[in-house]
Amino acid sequence: MLVLTVFAATMALAMAQDCSSPAGTRASFGAYLQCIKEGLDADYGNYENEIREHSKKAATACFASSIEEGNQKDRCVLAASDLSHNAWDKNGPLRECSICRTFAAGAIKAIKATPAEDQKCIRTEVSKAIAREAAYCLQKKIPNFAGVPEIPDLEEGSFQYKDSVISSISDHILIQSRLSFCGERKPQRAASTRACLASPFVGYLSGHCKVLANCDAKFSGQCAQTIPATRKATCECITEARDDLKKRIGSIANVFNDLLSGGRGLAIGSANKVDICTSQIKKQMVTPVNDWVNVIDTALSSCIRNKPAGQNLAMEALLNVGCRKVIADTTGAATSQLKTGFDFVNNLIDAMVQRSGRFCGGSHCLQG
């Protein structure tokens, strides 16, 4: 038995070192991702604490704590105390939208109540969609691209630390919301603050950087150059897909504005205006390889075994309710509130995608 185990390990290592062909590179990159997962799994709690604590420290380093300091340093303003409450609290970015706070709080409660197996199932389905986006992009970057390997579940250890995970996601939402608010008024300040957040201080996420360096060191020969290059291209594609998805969700507000102004062929008094509104929003969420509304609805319907009584979790149903509210509203308040809600969803999804890119590293890993 011992001989068979040693033989299997030797064969796996040999396969992981083959970067002489597209198929070999794909298998080797898959082994590289698995190496990172094993590194994170070995001490998930500390790596999760590092994300949360370093995120707060980065905000302190890169944002100004007052308007006066912001004017002096040309930085966006976010005081440390702003991160002491959750993003869905009454003083957060949803403060003008009570229905959004109710929905967000309900979503967080549902996440906490969802069993570990169901959460893993949802992450797996979303990871497949992210891999499809990355593969579509990589075909244009890498000649004879053989496809993205199965992405291991880097968040498998998260269930045990779900309160910490939710806290770090809340911080991400608050930081991104403040950057968006700042960017609408002072684009240059937002740009300089974002640049700082990419590499905010020496030692930023150093624990994660060591995991990456450890796995990099396992490859030699041709793979020593090919695997880092593949990782870089994959991460660039994930970032492009992330930015594209943010733009798509951000443009949903335009659908509501067009609806109210009679654009997109939405005739005043049209009996099927709600259906047209829902359809137009769904179109915004379709990429060359994914229908994101369908991806999310399929994941929720197939993965959540005990669905909340009397609650429809489908995104399409939520879009339908949103469209009805906008059409029935004559004050413009519903459109404003739904924009706030979609901005929140946008930053929530962005936080999830960012976490899936733990294997990317960055300029901060070259410091110190």
How does this structure look, described?
This is DUF19 domain-containing protein. Keywords: Signal. The chain is an all-alpha fold and 368 residues long. Helices cover 67% and strands 0% of the residues. It has one domain (21-366). It has 15 helices and no strands.
Element layout with pairings:
Blueprint: H1 2-16, H2 22-41, H3 44-62, H4 67-73, H5 98-113, H6 116-138, H7 162-185, H8 187-198, H9 206-216, H10 223-250, H11 252-261, H12 273-284, H13 292-303, H14 315-328, H15 333-356
Helix pairs in contact: 2-9, 2-10, 3-7, 3-8, 6-10, 6-13, 7-8, 7-15, 10-15, 11-12, 11-15, 12-14
Q: How many domains make up the coordinates?
A: 1
Largest beta-sheet characterization: none
Count of DSSP-assigned helices: 15
Radius of gyration: 22 Å
What is the average of the pLDDT values?
84
* Percentage of residues assigned to helices: 55-70%
**Poorly predicted segments:** 1-15
Topology as a string of helices (H) and strands (E) = HHHHHHHHHHHHHHH
> What is the number of beta strands?
0
Strand content: under 5%
Give the helix/strand class: mainly alpha
Q: Sum up the overall morphology in one term.
A: globular
Terminal CA distance reads: 45 Å
Which features does this protein show?
15 helices, signal, disordered N terminus, 368 residues, DUF19 domain-containing protein, mainly alpha
